[in-house]
């Protein structure tokens, strides 16, 4: 059944974007706005190669006063929505290029998706990474079936080496860009969500520099229902998309942080096609703080048992931060697009999020160094139902009276209200109690 939309003119062709056999060293971004038919064709072609991920009602709905549905794209085999665009891209390559192989140069979600799906399609695949790449990522790419080569100390070194190998051996050098084929593959998320959740009022996507998911899915959703509100969310630290939309062309934010925590959220705006679609079809772009992203990660872990990274959590962060009050009482879908967070970062993020959420706090107070005084303090903590995580006693460098001890205590509480109750109880008994501000 063909669906006709008033937005058809916004998705018209400018020129063909089928990769040509002569394209040896790179797959150039094509100047084309995708059509709904392109996305439908992509959905049909990749249906057996990617997961149709659930879009489930969330227990967070009551907390934020709206019906929240989470599209769990982190359940893809490589933990990222990028698989959709990558698989369609690889399947669209000419057969002679598939025989020669492809090469990528990064440790991103895009590269891991290329490593896996190229191997599944029996396309020779090479991944060039810098020597600073996390060993876990190198191991994962090898397990997916790619030939992984470490070269250079920076990402730029590995990219130069990959391009040289591509030119010398006839490989196709792939990098994440906004070709119509890639955007069509990503746009299949929008098709699935429209089918899975009837009567949607709004859909929230991660944005940032790599806004292909936002642009492609917006094309699908606006075609099916122009009244659905499409919202993009990026980081306040590097609002690349907002700057690019204001300037009217892709821009690079000099403040972009390449820390692995942010992933593609902090990337530069990589193409005019995504920017054009975003400008025409996206209703709103908002920015959130790093603190909001961390608390969003905590909420997803607690309520959904979902371990996600910053890119996966940033959509929900807009609701956590109260940036979208107009959605109260509405049916809202949030795309959780990625779950590839390194274990050491996960530990740091959760610890920091608990502090930001007023669930872990630290205080210090001075008590008499006499038998029984420490037990009285512990009795108060037990009565207030605070869980002691760490307790230290300082006797040598205490500036108060002789024969006193400074106690530094870290405790876990239920929430902000519980923390306030504990604070009042301690101040009543120990007026000089000092709280460590987060």
Automatic annotation (TrEMBL):
Q: Which SUPFAM superfamilies match?
A: Tryptophan synthase beta subunit-like PLP-dependent enzymes
**GO molecular-function annotation terms?**
L-serine ammonia-lyase activity; threonine deaminase activity
Q: Could you say which residues form the signal peptide?
A: none
- InterPro entries linked: ACT_dom (IPR002912), ACT_ThrD-II-like (IPR044561), Ser/Thr_Dehydratase (IPR050147), TrpB-like_PALP (IPR001926), TrpB-like_PALP_sf (IPR036052)
Where the record annotates domain ACT, the positions are: 362-438
Q: Which GO terms describe its biological process?
A: isoleucine biosynthetic process; L-serine catabolic process; L-threonine catabolic process
- What are the required cofactors? pyridoxal 5'-phosphate
Q: Which UniProt keywords apply?
A: Lyase, Pyridoxal phosphate
Query: What protein name is recorded for this chain?
Result: L-serine deaminase
């Amino acid at each position: 059944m063909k669906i006709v939309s008033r937005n058809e003119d916004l998705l018209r062709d400018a020129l063909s974007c089928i990769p040509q056999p002569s394209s040896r060293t790179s797959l150039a971004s094509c100047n084309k706005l995708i059509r709904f038919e392109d996305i439908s064709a992509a959905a049909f072609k990749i249906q057996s190669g990617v997961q149709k991920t659930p879009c489930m009602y969330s227990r967070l709905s009551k907390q934020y006063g709206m019906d929240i549905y989470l599209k769990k794209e982190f359940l893809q085999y490589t933990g990222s929505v990028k698989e959709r665009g990558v698989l369609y891209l690889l399947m669209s390559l000419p057969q002679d290029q598939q025989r020669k192989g492809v090469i990528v140069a990064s440790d991103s979600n895009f590269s891991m998706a290329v490593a896996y799906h190229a191997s599944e399609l029996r396309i020779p695949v090479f991944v060039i990474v810098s020597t600073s790449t996390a060993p876990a990522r190198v191991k994962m790419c090898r397990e997916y079936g790619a030939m992984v080569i470490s070269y250079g100390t920076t990402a730029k070194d590995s990219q130069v080496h990959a391009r040289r190998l591509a030119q010398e051996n006839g490989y196709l050098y792939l990098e994440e860009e906004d070709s119509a084929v890639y955007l069509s593959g990503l746009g299949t998320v929008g098709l699935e969500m429209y089918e899975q959740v009837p009567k949607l009022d709004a859909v929230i996507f991660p944005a940032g520099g790599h806004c292909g998911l936002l642009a492609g899915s917006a094309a699908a959703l606006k075609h099916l229902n122009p009244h659905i509100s499409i919202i993009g969310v990026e980081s306040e630290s590097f609002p690349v998309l907002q700057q690019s939309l204001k300037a009217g062309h892709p821009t690079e934010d000099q403040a972009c942080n390449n820390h692995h925590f942010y992933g593609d959220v902090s990337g530069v705006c990589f193409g005019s096609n995504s920017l054009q679609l975003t400008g025409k079809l996206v209703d709103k772009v908002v920015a959130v703080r790093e603190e909001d992203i961390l608390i969003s990660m905590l909420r997803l872990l607690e309520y959904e048992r979902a371990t996600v990274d910053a890119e996966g959590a940033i959509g929900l962060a807009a609701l956590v931060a109260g940036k979208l009050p107009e959605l109260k009482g509405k049916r809202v879908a949030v795309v959780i697009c990625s779950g590839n967070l390194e274990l050491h970062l996960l530990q740091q993020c959760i610890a920091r999020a608990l502090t930001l959420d007023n669930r872990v706090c630290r205080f210090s107070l001075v008590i008499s160094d006499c038998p029984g005084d420490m037990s009285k303090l512990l009795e108060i903590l037990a009565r207030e139902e605070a869980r002691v995580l760490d307790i230290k006693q300082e006797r040598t460098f205490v500036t108060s009276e002789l024969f006193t001890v400074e106690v530094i205590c870290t405790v876990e509480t239920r929430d902000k209200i519980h923390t306030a109750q504990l604070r009042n109880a301690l101040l009543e008994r120990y007026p000089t109690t000092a709280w460590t501000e987060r």
